[in-house]
Specification:
Layout: H1 3-8, H2 11-20, E1 25-29, E2 34-36, H3 37-53, E3 61-65, H4 70-82, E4 85-88, H5 95-105, E5 109-112, H6 117-126, E6 131-134, H7 142-147, E7 165-171, E8 179-184, H8 185-198, E9 206-209, H9 216-228, E10 232-235, H10 241-247, E11 253-256, H11 258-265, E12 280-283, H12 290-300, E13 305-310, E14 314-318, E15 332-333, E16 338-342, E17 357-362, H13 374-380, E18 387-395, E19 401-406, E20 411-413, E21 416-418, H14 420-428, E22 433-443, E23 447-456, H15 464-472, E24 483-486, H16 500-506
Helix pairs in contact: 2-3, 3-4, 5-6, 8-9, 11-12
The chain binds malonyl-coenzyme A and adenosine monophosphate.
């Protein structure tokens, strides 16, 4: 096994540790379950064999809407091992959202929670998905039954090109429809190696995993970096600040979205003593307020390391492991990653510090494009490989990047991206609604809170409660507006475009208590 294998084949990590240190712990849970690297190597083979018997071959999509569990990790590893394309779906997504994903990615098999089988089975069948299997939060279900069958062949393994697809992650867009970012084996492998090196991961690390497994932060930045370094995961079902605090003495690394840190700071027990065993706190997926950064340092002595990533590019930049970690900055490009800024108006390259431009990214981390959407692929990735991030940034004199805004109309609530266009289309289709504008407003816990400003049709009666109730059945809960304000009209500029900046200013204090 060479370093080159590690940078191109993500499953090679598990094989290497399973051979060199088979008994080393890969994953542990709070309920005392534990899997060594040898266990996970053997089990991922059985699970890959189960997928094979469901008709899955290398290159086929496996869509999974499951709760967070060690078996959900195993399912992902089984896909990596056999070369299937893993398509995770947020369990908060509603049946109509799932229906869209299944139609779009056309998986060979859909894995659903046992309780959803009756609803999603027909939806999968209508999307021409030939097989449905179940996976419960406790790991049970028809998929585990197949894997545990003595006929299963644990030797399944595909050796594929680094350009082969490993996963499709759906990310919504400014046009409203979710698009599947195609991530290759090389994307995953190179990025995890870059993070393991930059953050000095070793076999002695234990990462407390409290993030969801269906986003690139929790699955790739966290799980893959642990795997690439032969380290250990302590897997929590979900983020719970008190639980995280209690287990800090057993771990060395925590990765989280800013809301994790805001909530941890509310606990009096967060201090130098309780965090003494941890060597690294990482934040990403949304802006970390400089104030939270400083408060965390005052209370614990730890300087949070902020980094910047995207579904389409995995991780791009990081503050240094050794050296100044600047509040409000996301650091310098990771090894192998290039970042440039272009003037948003003229497209000219910006080569001076302190000037703001559109961030573009190039490197082995950039995805292969959007699933079955050539148009979107061409419009977002230039022929020479530069990816248009939709974020605006500037470099300081030391070469640290700062994210100063977004060219794309998007907001981030608790680390989840919400695209206003998708919500506005849903709201505008409701009876009695003339038009709407969705914005993010400052929120102490979530960073930004989804807020809808709605204009009613003349003589129509609409209320905040009726709109929220109607959206709850259509959209994942985190997308449903916290507040809906019904107003007589929306402010527009001379071109007729809704002035969202004015709406944001006008309602800036809505969530202040
Ligand atoms: C939960 N709710 C949210 C929400 N999360 N609402 C808005 N925004 C969110 N992020 C809803 C719940 O359904 C619930 O609704 C209510 O809010 C209260 O929930 P809670 O118990 O307070 O929230 P909790 O479940 O604790 O979740 C908060 C959270 C979670 C921050 C722990 O959102 C989370 O794990 N976020 C991480 C997202 C993430 O992994 N992003 C990475 C994207 S990858 P009700 O109706 O029941 O009251 C990426 C690239 C990169 O961006 O750079 O990493
Ligand atoms: P997603 O599409 O869910 O992967 O979200 C990616 C977006 O999250 C980026 O384009 C940024 O807008 C934002 N993001 C990620 N990390 C950071 C960060 N550290 N600071 C500010 N924004 C971030």
């Amino acid at each position: 096994m060479t370093t080159e294998d590690f940078r191109s084949d993500p499953y090679a990590w598990i094989e290497a540790t399973a051979r060199q240190a088979p008994e080393r712990a890969f994953l542990a849970t709070l309920s005392g379950r534990r899997w060594s690297y040898a266990d996970v190597h053997r089990l991922s083979g059985s699970w890959a064999s189960a997928l094979q018997r469901l008709g899955v071959s290398a290159g086929d999509r496996v869509a999974a809407q499951s709760d967070k569990s060690p078996e959900a990790v195993l399912l992902y590893l089984a896909c990596l091992r056999m070369g299937a394309v893993y398509v995770p779906i947020n369990p908060a997504n509603t049946a109509s959202e799932v229906s869209y994903f299944l139609q779009d990615c056309a998986p060979r098999v859909a894995i659903v929670r046992p309780a959803d089988a009756a609803t999603l089975g027909p939806i999968a069948a209508a999307a021409d998905v030939s097989q449905t299997a179940t996976l419960g939060a406790d790991g049970s279900g028809t998929l585990a039954d197949l894997a545990n069958n003595p006929a299963s062949d644990p030797g399944v393994r595909a050796h594929l090109d680094p350009g082969a697809l490993a996963a499709i992650f759906y990310t919504s867009g400014t046009t409203g429809r979710a698009k599947g970012a195609m991530l290759t084996r090389g994307n995953l492998a190179s990025n995890a190696c870059a993070l393991a090196t930059t953050w000095k991961f070793s076999v002695n690390d234990v990462l407390l995993h409290a993030l969801p497994l269906f986003h690139v932060h929790g699955l790739f930045a966290a799980v893959n970096t642990v795997l690439a370094s032969g380290a250990t995961l302590l897997l929590l079902d979900a983020f719970d600040a008190s639980l995280v605090l209690r287990h800090l003495p057993e771990i060395t690394v925590l990765m989280g979205v800013p809301t994790f840190y805001t909530r941890l700071l509310q606990l009096p027990g967060l201090d130098r003593h309780s965090t003494a065993h941890v060597r690294l706190f990482v934040s990403g997926s949304a802006p970390l307020l400089a104030q939270v950064h400083r408060e965390f340092e005052e209370r614990t002595g730890h300087v949070i390391l902020e980094r910047y990533g995207m579904t389409e590019t995995l991780m791009n930049t990081s503050n240094p492991y050794e050296g100044a970690r600047l509040p409000g900055f996301v650091g310098t490009p990771l090894p192998g990653v290039e970042i440039r800024l272009l003037d948003a108006q003229t497209g000219a390259l910006i080569d001076q510090p302190d000037q703001t431009g559109a961030i573009e990214i190039r490197g082995p981390n950039v995805c292969a494009g959007y699933w079955r959407d050539r148009q979107k692929t061409i419009s977002e990735i230039r022929p020479d490989g530069w990816f248009k991030s939709g974020d605006l940034g500037r470099f300081n004199r030391e070469g640290y990047l700062q994210i100063v805004g977004r060219a794309k109309d998007m907001l981030i609530t608790g680390g989840y991206n919400v695209y206003p266009k998708e919500l506005e289309q849903e709201i505008d289709s409701l009876a009695g609604v003339l038009e709407s504008a969705v914005i993010g407003l400052p929120h102490r816990d979530l960073g930004e809170a989804v807020t809808a400003i709605v204009v009613a049709n003349p003589d129509a009666m609409i209320s905040e409660a009726s709109i929220i109730a109607a959206l709850q059945v259509r959209l994942a809960r985190y997308k449903v507006p916290r507040r809906v304000l019904v107003v007589p009209e929306l402010p527009r500029n001379t071109m007729g475009k809704v002035q969202k900046n004015l709406l944001r200013e006008r309602h800036a204090a809505l969530y202040e208590t």
